[in-house]
Design brief:
- The complex is a heterodimer of chains A (161) and B (589).
- Chain A is built from six helices and no strands.
- By secondary structure, chain A is mainly α.
- The N terminus of chain A is likely disordered.
- Chain B is mostly helical and 589 residues long.
- In chain B, 70% of the residues lie in helices and 3% in strands.
- Chain B has 21 helices and four strands.
- A four-stranded mixed beta sheet of chain B has the order 1-2-4-3.
- In chain B, β3 and β4 form a beta hairpin.
- In chain B, α3 packs across α8, α14 packs across α18 and α17 packs across α19.
- The longest helix of chain B has 61 residues.
- The chains are: A mainly alpha (161), B mainly alpha (589).
- Chains A and B meet through α2 of A and β3, α6 and α7 of B.
C-alpha cells in the first residue's frame, strides 16, 4: 500500500524550516525568505566580475539551507509515525482528521514550536528521528554546534505532548 | 591592525608602472590605427573624396587616432559609474543602521577613505562587491549575501570589505577604469579601421569615380545640358559592376594586412590591462590583511579550491584576478608582493622593443616626409622652439619607454631587501630579470616585423618601405641589446645601494611617488650618459676622448647632486645597524 499523500506538505515544511532556523540560527532568520527563494530556485553561477573580489562565499552561512533540506525528512518521519490524541496513526486517519491536525500543526509552527505538539512521538521514535536527522545532517556537513542545537530543539518540541 | 606586518602598498606602486605601460601601449595602438583613418582636414569643411579614396597608412598621420582614442577614453571613463551600477542588477541603498553599513563605515574611517554611497543588490547568493566612482561619487556595491555574512561571519566580511575599500585607499580605482576606458577606446578605434577599410574607403573610391565621371568642364554646354543624366543612380547602373570588379578585390587584402597587426595590439593591450587588474588585487589583499589580519583574509580566500590546475595556469594571463594559490601565498609572504614575475620581464622587453620600433618608424617617416625633422631631432637650436620641442619629446620618450622596466627592477630590489635575501640571491634575481628583458626585446624584434614583412610579401609580392619593416635581428642588434642589459644591471646595482639606505632609515611617513620617479629616472640617465660617453671615448679616444670623459664625469657629478639629497630625503637618518626592522613607513596602513 503506497503512502497516503501528505496534504499541504510544502507549506508545512517551510514553516518547520523557518521555526528550526529561528531556534537553531536566529541570526539568519531575517534572511530566511531570501535564502528559501534562492534554495528553491537556484540561480546560475554568479558572474565573476573583473573588478569584484574574485572569490565566491562558498558554503558560508549554509545552515539555513541545511535546515530547509532537513525539514522534508523530518516532516515525512513525523507524518508517517506520529499519532493523534486518540492514539491512532495520523497517516491512517480520515481526511477531516488530517485537516484538523494540519491546522494544529500550522498554529504550533507559527508559534515556533512552543506549546504542546499536536502530534505524539514515542521515545523510541523520537530517538530514531534524532538519529536519522543526525545522519542526514552529517551528509549535508552541518556544523556540529548547530546540529547540537537542532537536536535539543527537536527533543524539546516533541517532549511537550 | 597588525603593526608588525609590512604593507607592500607603501612601496612604489606596481599599478603606477602598469598604468604607464598601458598608456604607452594605447598610444602605440591608437597611433597605428590613426594612420589608417582619414584626417579631419579631408572631412571639414568639405569632404575631399579623392584624398579619402586614396588615403593609406603610409601617408596617414597617427595623431588623429591618438586624439580620438583620448577623447573616447575620457567619455567612457566619465560615465563608467553608470555601467557599474547595473553590474549586479537592481540595487537598494544600504540602511544606515544595517550591520554591513556600520562595518563598511568603520573600516573606511580607519583607512581614511570617504565612501559616498553604499548599495546592496537583491541576490542573496551574491557575495561579491565592487568599488567604483569618481571623487564625489565613491560607491561600494555589495551583494546581498555580504549582509548575511556581516552577521554570521563578520571577520570574513570585514576582510572582503577592507579589500574593496583598499582599492580607494590605494588610488587604483581610477587606474582600473581609466585603463579599461583606454582598452575599450582602442577596440572602438580598431573597429572603426575595419569599417573604414571594408566599407567607407571603397565607398569613397566609388564616389570619387562618380565625381570624375559626372564632371562637366567649364564652358561645355552639351555636358551641362546632359547633367540630369549624370545622377549617381545612373553611374551605378552603368559602372556598378565594373566598380565592384575593380575595388572588391582591393578591400580584402588591405583588411587582411591590417587585421593580424590589430589582433596583436588588442592582445597586448588586453594582457597588460589584465596584468594591472591582478596587481591591484594583490595590493588590495595586502592592505586588507594589514588591517583585518592575515587569518581572516586566508579564510575567506579559501572558500574556493586553492590548488591550481593546468587550465588555471593557462588562463591566468587572461584573468582579472590572480590564482587563488598565488593570493594566499602573497598574504602569507607580503615581501613577495613587490616581486615581479619572470613573465613580466619578458613581456616588458617585448613591449619595449615594439614601442621603440614604432617610434623609430614614426621618426623615420617624418624624416622621409620632411628632412628638417632629422636635424631637429639631432640638435636643439636655441632660437628654434620646434627643435626644443623635438628634443624634449625625445628625452621624455627616452625616460618613459624604459620606465616600466626600471620600476620592475626597483621592486625586485625592494622585495629582496625586505625579505633579507643574501646579496648573491639579489644578484641572481637581477641577472635573471635583465636576461628575460633582453629575450623579450629580441622576441619583439623578431615577432612584430614578421607580421608586417610577411603580410607585405603577401599583398604586394615585395616588402614595404624598410622604415616600416623594422630592424632585423643581427649580431649588431644583439650587441645593442647586450649593452642595454648591462646598463640595466648597473642601474639595478645603484638601486640596491640606495634602497639599503631608504629601507633602513628613520623616515616615518610614506614616500611620494615623485621622489621614487626622480630617483629611478636620474639613476638611469646617469648610467646611460656615463656608459655612452665612456663607450664613445673608448671607440674614438684620439678624436674626442677627453671631451667624452668630461661628459661622463659631469654626469656623475650631476647625478650625485640630484640623487644624494633625494635619497637622504627618502630615508631620513640612515641606521646601518638596523637589521631587525625596516623604516617605519613600511609598516604604515
Amino acid at each position: 500500500m503506497s503512502a497516503p499523500p501528505v496534504p499541504d506538505m510544502h507549506a508545512l515544511e517551510i514553516k518547520l524550516a523557518r521555526a528550526l532556523t529561528d531556534a537553531v540560527v536566529p541570526q539568519e532568520s531575517p534572511f530566511f525568505d531570501d535564502l528559501l527563494a534562492a534554495r528553491q530556485k537556484p540561480s546560475s553561477k554568479g558572474k565573476d566580475h573583473d573588478l569584484g573580489f574574485g572569490v565566491s562565499a562558498g558554503d558560508v552561512v549554509a545552515i539555513t539551507f541545511v535546515l530547509i533540506d532537513l525539514s522534508k525528512p523530518i516532516f515525512r518521519f513525523v507524518w508517517d509515525n506520529a499519532k493523534d490524541a486518540t492514539g491512532a496513526l495520523i497517516k491512517d486517519a480520515s481526511q477531516n482528521a488530517k485537516t484538523i491536525i494540519e491546522h494544529k500543526m500550522n498554529a504550533w509552527l507559527d508559534h515556533k514550536l512552543n506549546g504542546p505538539a499536536p502530534v505524539a512521538l514515542s521515545s523510541s521514535q523520537l530517538e530514531e528521528l534524532i538519529a536519522n536527522v543526525g545522519r542526514e545532517a552529517a551528509a549535508l556537513k552541518l556544523d556540529p554546534a548547530a546540529l547540537g542545537r537542532l537536536d535539543k530543539t527537536l527533543r524539546s518540541a516533541f517532549a511537550q505532548q | 591592525m597588525n603593526p608588525a606586518r609590512i604593507n607592500p602598498n607603501r612601496f612604489p606602486s606596481g599599478t603606477d608602472a602598469h598604468f604607464v605601460l598601458i598608456c604607452i601601449t594605447s598610444f602605440m595602438v591608437s597611433f597605428w590605427a590613426g594612420r589608417y583613418l582619414p584626417s579631419p582636414a579631408n572631412l571639414l569643411p568639405t569632404i575631399d573624396w579623392h584624398t579619402l579614396a586614396y588615403h593609406n597608412s603610409i601617408s596617414g598621420g597617427g595623431l588623429t587616432g591618438v586624439l580620438l582614442c583620448g577623447g573616447l577614453a575620457a567619455i567612457l571613463y566619465l560615465f563608467h559609474a553608470r555601467g557599474q551600477l547595473r553590474a549586479f542588477g537592481k540595487t537598494d541603498e544600504l540602511a544606515v543602521q544595517d550591520k554591513l553599513a556600520s562595518l563598511i563605515r568603520s573600516i573606511a574611517a580607519t583607512m581614511g577613505v570617504r565612501i559616498d554611497r553604499l548599495l546592496v543588490d537583491r541576490d542573496i547568493t551574491n557575495a561579491d562587491a565592487l568599488a567604483f566612482g569618481l571623487r564625489k561619487g565613491r560607491t561600494i556595491l555589495a551583494g546581498k549575501r555580504l549582509r548575511l555574512m556581516s552577521v554570521v561571519a563578520p571577520e570574513e566580511c570585514q576582510a572582503r570589505m577592507a579589500h574593496e575599500i583598499a582599492h580607494f585607499r590605494n588610488g587604483d580605482v581610477a587606474y582600473a577604469f581609466l585603463s579599461r576606458a583606454l582598452v575599450q577606446a582602442n577596440l572602438i578605434l580598431i573597429l572603426l579601421v575595419i569599417v573604414w577599410l571594408l566599407l567607407l574607403q571603397p565607398l569613397a573610391m566609388v564616389i570619387d569615380n562618380y565625381l570624375v565621371w559626372s564632371y562637366c568642364p567649364p564652358g561645355d554646354s552639351l555636358c551641362s545640358l546632359l547633367k540630369d543624366r549624370h545622377k549617381f543612380s545612373d553611374f551605378l547602373a552603368i559602372q556598378g559592376p565594373r566598380q565592384l570588379a575593380a575595388y572588391g578585390p582591393m578591400v580584402l587584402p588591405g583588411l587582411i594586412a591590417a587585421m593580424p597587426t590589430a589582433l596583436f595590439w588588442v592582445l597586448l593591450l588586453f594582457l597588460e590591462h589584465r596584468s594591472l587588474l591582478r596587481v591591484r588585487e594583490v595590493l588590495a589583499d595586502a592592505q586588507a590583511a594589514k588591517l583585518i589580519g592575515a587569518e581572516a583574509m586566508e579564510r575567506t580566500l579559501s572558500r574556493e579550491q586553492r590548488t591550481s590546475s593546468i587550465r588555471d595556469y593557462m588562463r591566468s594571463p587572461f584573468s582579472a584576478h590572480p590564482r587563488l594559490a598565488e593570493r594566499v601565498r602573497l598574504i602569507a609572504c607580503p615581501s613577495n608582493v613587490a616581486l615581479p614575475t619572470g613573465y613580466r620581464f619578458l613581456f616588458l622587453g617585448l613591449v619595449y622593443s615594439v614601442a621603440s620600433q614604432l617610434l623609430s618608424a614614426y621618426s623615420n617617416s617624418i624624416i622621409d616626409l620632411d628632412a628638417r625633422f632629422g636635424t631637429m631631432f639631432m640638435l636643439a637650436k636655441p632660437h628654434d622652439l620646434n627643435s626644443w620641442i623635438a628634443v624634449v619629446w625625445d628625452a621624455a620618450v627616452f625616460a618613459i619607454l624604459p620606465f616600466p622596466i626600471l620600476a620592475a627592477l626597483l621592486r625586485v630590489n625592494i622585495s629582496s631587501i625586505v625579505s633579507r635575501a643574501p646579496p648573491g640571491m639579489v644578484l641572481l634575481r637581477i641577472l635573471k630579470s635583465v636576461v628575460l628583458v633582453g629575450l623579450g626585446i629580441i622576441l619583439g624584434d623578431v615577432v612584430f616585423p614578421l607580421f608586417q614583412f610577411g603580410l607585405s610579401l603577401f599583398i604586394g609580392g615585395h616588402p614595404f618601405s624598410t622604415s616600416l619593416v623594422a630592424r632585423a635581428t643581427s649580431i649588431g642588434r644583439l650587441l645593442v641589446v647586450l649593452r642595454f642589459a648591462l646598463i640595466l644591471v648597473l642601474v639595478a646595482f645603484l638601486y640596491w645601494i640606495g634602497l639599503r639606505s631608504i629601507l633602513r632609515g628613520t623616515r616615518s611617513t610614506g614616500i611620494p611617488a615623485i621622489l621614487w620617479g626622480v630617483a629611478m629616472v636620474s639613476t638611469y640617465y646617469a648610467i646611460w650618459m656615463v656608459f655612452g660617453a665612456g663607450y664613445a671615448a673608448v671607440i674614438d679616444w684620439s678624436a674626442a676622448g677627453p671631451y667624452y670623459l668630461f661628459i661622463a664625469l659631469l654626469s656623475v657629478a650631476i647625478y650625485a647632486l640630484v640623487a644624494v639629497p633625494v635619497v637622504r630625503r627618502m630615508s631620513g637618518k640612515y641606521l646601518p645597524d638596523r637589521t631587525e626592522h625596516l623604516a617605519p613607513w613600511v609598516y604604515e596602513i
